[in-house]
Design goal:
It is a single chain. By secondary structure, this protein is an alpha/beta fold. It has helices spanning about 1-15, 20-35, 70-85, 195-200, 225-230, 250-265, 285-295, 325-330, 355-360, 380-390, 390-395, 435-445; strands at about 95-105, 110-120, 125-135, 140-150, 165-170, 175, 205-210, 275-285, 300-305, 365-370, 420-425. The protein has a nine-stranded mixed β-sheet with strand order 1-2-3-7-4-8-9-10-11, sandwiched between helices. The chain has a two-stranded antiparallel ribbon with strand order 5-6.
């Protein structure tokens, strides 16, 4: 009964007959199940693969030195724009902010600020609501984590002053967040992904956060048949009509990453936050987002992608865990349509002339710390190997890549280097207290002396 109700809702929002929606959803489910059967979870069955060298141009010319890196980095980003994530959206006409509310929080130890941000001078079109939490008694500007959250800004703090947002949900509906979710990320019991805001503040960091659902919806493939049509709402209104003939149309990951950069735009206007010490962080699909944002925007000095899943940090050519096939079918709105031609064909270099380690390399010579957990689908070893394959980009600058050694065991921090690192733990999916501790220690070292 519940499924029929959801299908009826999807039909209303898509303008299709219920029978047609049901038929399309069943067909998609069959395609996803077929793609899942092609996934591999045995190391000895991984076919040979060849990775493109991050320090070699696409025409085969080897980079001479670090002075040529900006050109190679631009080439890499262009490949991902055309072949995977879609075109990077243009910078906004303007960034106009309005303070909704400001006050003390966390027993007076921090300042809570809520702003609404528009991207046109006349405040027309879509807006994003940000929550900023920073130490109250800091003697100088503090570094900041930029994080897109899943459930709304009210999940970060218990404070009744935090606005309950109206968000676009994955079933195609739009309605306010549930009041019972206030402070949800502070409730650590059985919560696999807490946000220890007191610890961040005590360690001298600010948090700049917005809900990704407030930016554009993330339709569920089990409920919505036309994922792209359902996704291009919200922030997409800024970029006009979409040309269906283009294969590089901006995908949702690109739109969310663009919005993370708008968080940095705000930071540059706030004298209490240090614009030279900004960290992109996220978990799962929002870790993919943070990785893309940091690759494209050099204002992020550190990137910490936590448990990205397939088509994020792990190598796609490794053919282990979640593949481009399953990811594209379930989440095709995340990518541009050009990415569809690589479904189940990633391992052939002539077919797919790039891999995720190149996106990692685009962060060089800044810093990155990958974080993993036990799920085979998320391929922790593939994450580690991606960082290892990207390391020559740092070595081009005379900087150390990921430390030499074997794939680290759970809770082994030996692979956390000065510029490139990897660490994994046991437990469930989400940014745990361990992950935050490793992240803070890594960033402390990165920003020491500043």
């Amino acid at each position: 009964m519940k499924r029929l109700v959801l299908i009826a809702v999807a039909a209303i929002f898509s303008g299709m007959a219920v029978a047609d929606v049901d038929s399309q959803l069943r067909e998609l489910a069959e395609q996803v199940n077929a793609a899942r059967k092609r996934e591999n979870f045995k190391e000895d069955k991984i076919p040979p693969y060849v990775l493109p060298d991050p320090c070699t141009f696409a025409d085969g010319t080897k980079l001479k030195d670090a002075s040529e890196w900006p050109k190679r980095r631009a080439e890499i980003l262009d490949i991902f724009a055309k072949e995977m994530y879609g075109a990077e959206p243009p910078k906004p006409e303007a960034v106009v902010t309005e303070t909704i509310e400001e006050g003390k929080t966390l027993a007076g130890l921090a300042i809570r600020k809520q702003i609404r941000m528009w991207f046109r001078k006349d405040k027309s079109g879509p807006a994003v609501e940000w929550l900023i939490v920073r130490p109250r008694n800091a003697k100088r500007p503090v570094p900041a984590f930029v994080l897109l959250n899943y459930g709304g800004n009210q999940t970060v703090l218990d404070d009744p002053e935090v606005v309950l947002p109206t968000m676009m949900w994955d079933d195609g509906t739009e309605h306010p967040a549930d009041p019972s979710t206030r402070g949800a990320l502070r409730k650590t019991r059985d919560n696999a992904s807490p946000l220890p805001i007191e610890i961040l503040v005590a360690r001298g960091y600010a948090l700049v956060t917005a809900c990704f659902r407030n930016i554009s919806p993330d339709p569920n493939w089990k409920l919505i048949p036309n994922l792209e049509a359902a996704a291009v709402k919200g922030i997409f209104a800024l970029w006009g009509e979409r040309d269906p003939k283009r294969t590089d149309l901006t995908g949702s990951l690109s739109a969310w990453a663009w919005t993370m950069s708008r968080g940095v735009d705000y930071i540059e206007t706030d004298p209490a936050i240090d614009e030279t010490r900004v960290i992109a962080i996220g978990c799962s699909r929002l870790a993919k987002t943070a990785l893309l944002a940091a690759a494209r925007d050099t204002r992020f000095g550190v990137c910490i992608p936590n448990q990205t899943g397939g088509c994020g940090l792990p190598l796609s050519k490794r053919w282990f865990g979640e593949t481009a096939g399953t990811s594209f079918l379930k989440f095709r709105h995340w990518y541009c349509s050009a990415y569809g031609k690589y479904v189940d064909r990633e391992a052939t270099i002539k077919v797919m002339p790039f891999d995720q380690h190149l996106l990692v390399a685009a962060i060089a010579p800044r810093r990155i710390l990958g974080q993993g957990f036990p799920s085979a689908k998320f391929d922790a070893r593939g994450e580690y190997l991606s960082l290892k394959a990207a390391s020559p980009a740092w070595e081009l600058f005379g900087l150390p890549g990921i430390p030499a050694g074997e794939f680290p065991d759970y809770f082994d921090t030996s692979a956390i280097g000065e510029y490139v690192g990897y660490v994994r733990r046991s437990g469930e999916h989400g940014i745990s207290g361990y992950d935050w501790q490793w992240a803070l220690d890594f960033v402390d070292r990165a920003f020491s002396g500043r």
